[in-house]
Specification:
Structural class: alpha+beta
Shape: elongated
Number of helices: 5
Largest sheet: 7 strands, antiparallel
Strand content: 25-35%
Oligomer: single chain
Distance between the termini: 178 Å
Helix content: 25-40%
Strand order of the largest sheet: 1-2-3-7-6-5-4
CATH architecture of one domain: 3-Layer(aba) Sandwich
């Protein structure tokens, strides 16, 4: 037996030469470029236009607040406010009723026109003299006090006049009153010593005019 002819043996003479099979070329695949990832902007960083808008908005808000505050302050300044809380008026005749037995004398009663009695009380001052004390508010908004005692003691005078110095005398409705002045406290006092006791009128800021006005109103009740 003959061995099989190899597959690449030359063809017999006269036969057409076999055509070469074209080599199958692999089509070149284009390389895929990695997609560019957009850069992430910081969440806290805003575009320039947005930052400008935010800054402008904040400035407008501050200006608006300043305008509102200025308007509020102006309104507060324009609204009138009382300089002091008014006190309830005291009925002097009713307050005097029944105190004579405690004092040992009948207190003087009188209220100048336009004045208001703000308080009354019984107290024992230096010298152990029971005293009747009345506070007045004048129509000008000044304070005047009345102190009456059933006797006389220089310590009582020094205490209620707050150490006022003697400054002569003044005559009111035929009665002579001694004048005392405490200059550093703007306090003027006038004293009348009657047959049954002592009466002292103290005028704060109003001076002798306010003291005389009250003394004249007390009149014959002294």
């Amino acid at each position: 037996m003959h061995p099989p002819a190899p597959s690449d043996a030359a063809p017999p003479p006269g036969s057409p030469a076999p055509q070469a099979q074209p080599e199958r070329q692999l089509e070149a695949q284009p390389e895929r470029q990695p997609e560019a990832q957009p850069e992430r902007q910081s969440e806290s960083a805003a575009p320039p236009r947005r930052r400008s808008a935010l800054m402008a908005g904040a400035s407008d808000m501050v200006r608006s607040l300043l305008v509102i505050m200025a308007l509020v302050v102006g309104l507060v300044l324009l609204v009138p406010r009382p300089t002091s809380v008014p006190r309830a008026a005291v009925d002097l005749p009713a307050a005097v009723s029944g105190v004579a037995d405690q004092l040992g004398f009948a207190p003087a009663v009188g209220v100048p026109a336009g004045w208001t009695v703000t308080s009354t009380r019984i107290r024992t001052d230096t010298g152990d003299l029971p005293s009747w004390s009345v506070n007045y508010l004048t129509d000008k908004g000044r304070y005047v006090g009345l102190e009456q005692a059933g006797g006389w003691d220089p310590r009582w005078l020094a205490s209620v006049s707050q150490g006022g110095a003697a400054q002569g005398s003044t005559t009111i409705d035929g009665r002579q009153w001694s004048v005392y002045v405490k200059a550093d406290k703007h306090l003027t006092s006038i004293l009348f010593r009657g047959a049954t006791g002592s009466t002292l009128v103290l005028a704060q800021l109003g001076g002798l005019d306010d003291a005389r006005a009250l003394a004249a109103t007390l009149g014959s009740s002294l």
